[in-house]
Design a protein that fits this description.
Blueprint (H helix, E strand, L loop, with lengths): L2 H40 L17 E4 L8 E5 L17 H13 L9 E5 L19 H21 L5 E6 L1 H13 L3 H6 E7 L5 H6 L14 E2 L2 E3 L36 E3 L2
Parallel strand pairs: 2-3, 2-4, 4-5, 5-6
Antiparallel strand pairs: 1-3, 7-8
Helix pairs in contact: 3-4
Length: about 270
């Protein structure tokens, strides 16, 4: 190789190395920018965590591997997420998933000996975003989590339970979502026929609900099916949870699930349609 060609090759190599250094710097800056943008978005009020895919096991907090009981429980966990941003729970966060798994033992575990348990992870709205003056059922961030549960319920019926009877069970925000499900979906007689009961603990079902959604029924006796059963929750005095509507609730405050026609015990018990 002649000296001229050798010199040109050396210049080209030096030029190429400079360009590669510049390219690596640009890539590193872009990566840093993207990471910063993601971090900002995840802490922004406008960020919405990824949608759960209920065809994947990771989107279920409980999913009975062996279906050997005659009845199922579809359980929706209460509010566990208190942070201001993002406004909806990220179902991939390990700390939040552990809280849900703890509740499965503390609450839903009562059903494990007698029912197959199914419980979806859902992007519940943060407690910090709740406003007692706003209709929960039309709250845009509440609807994100509620629509997750609707999709999970659809997948459950289609792929996991084509014909078995089931119980709906929830607490707090989980009960609000299940009431939303009952309002929107259970005008269907085929679904009502499979519903054993709905336990909506920690939220009031009002007389307006009974009037506007006539398929919502209060249990009259312990062995009624296809109804929303009452339960009892002791409330601190004089504090009442802002989600409850004690002035309008349907009173059903007997432990044996019979409707309470009297006023006995109203100081320590708040009977609501559960």
């Amino acid at each position: 190789m002649c000296p001229v060609q050798s010199s040109r090759c050396l210049e080209y190599q030096v030029h190429l190395e400079k360009n590669m250094k510049s390219l690596r710097l640009i890539v590193a800056l872009l990566a840093l920018f993207c990471l910063s943008a993601i971090a900002y978005a995840e802490n922004s009020n406008d960020y919405v965590p990824p949608c759960p895919d209920y065809a994947q096991d990771v989107s279920w907090a409980a999913k009975s591997a062996t279906v050997d009981k005659p009845v199922d429980v579809f359980y929706v966990y209460p509010t566990i997420y208190p942070e201001k941003a993002p406004k909806n729970m990220d179902t991939s966060r390990k700390d939040l998933r552990r809280r849900v798994e703890h509740l499965l033992v503390a609450q839903a575990g009562v059903y494990s000996d007698s029912a197959n348990l199914f419980a979806p992870f859902y992007r519940q709205v943060s407690f910090a975003c709740l406003d007692p003056d706003v209709d929960m059922f039309h709250h845009p961030y509440f609807r994100i989590g509620a629509d997750d549960v609707h999709r999970a319920f659809d997948y459950y019926l289609l792929r996991m339970n084509p014909d078995r009877p089931f119980i709906l069970a929830g607490d707090s925000q989980g009960s609000v979502i299940l009431l939303d499900l009952l309002r929107r979906r259970f005008a269907d007689p085929a679904l009502r026929k499979r519903l054993v009961a709905a336990y909506l603990i920690g939220y009031s079902v009002t007389s307006d609900d009974l009037k506007n959604y006539p398929w919502l029924k209060i249990a009259q006796k312990a062995d009624d099916t296809g109804v929303s059963l009452p339960s009892i929750r002791r409330l601190p005095e004089p504090l009442v949870h802002p989600c409850l509507c004690p002035e309008r609730h349907a009173s059903t405050a007997e432990l044996d699930h019979r409707r309470n026609s009297g006023r006995e015990g109203t100081q320590s018990r708040c009977g609501v349609l559960q």
